[in-house]
Known about the structure:
Helix content is 3%, strand content 51%. It is mostly beta strands. The chain has one domain. Strands 4-3-2-1-8-7-6-5 form an eight-stranded antiparallel sheet, with no helix packed on it. Strand 1 and strand 2 (22-31) form a beta hairpin.
Amino acid sequence: MGQYALFVETLHDDCMPxxxxxxxxRVVVAVATDLGADGHATANIPTSVVPEGSPFQPPRSDISLxxxxxxxxxxPTPGCSAQSHLEVTPLAAxxxxxxxxxxxxxxxxGACQAxxxxxxxxxxxxxxxxxxxLRACPPGNVVADCx
Length: 147
């Protein structure tokens, strides 16, 4: 597990509100030291960001560092049937950092009661997450101890 500087490059974003981009500070990434059952190296990365000082942790996903993958995510809002589909494509993974393209499509959002962080209508956001290696985390595998 290590601390990385996260820079998000927006390729396309028609969501309202738009997703944050640019230099987004320090994040923790857990990279597996062995290959998974499918023969691919994996990492656990944040797939979004939350405002600095927020009591919430950003959503995280286990991803392959060598093969694209996609999955569907239900809305975090209780009683909301909206969904999002996330396509994750690894672009680079080496000792300097990890680059991952994340394309997320939201459907059914307009019918849900949105909070200030939720998308308000159907949309797509395509972004590249650039994780630049900073340092190793102390033993214990606790994300909060590494920030």
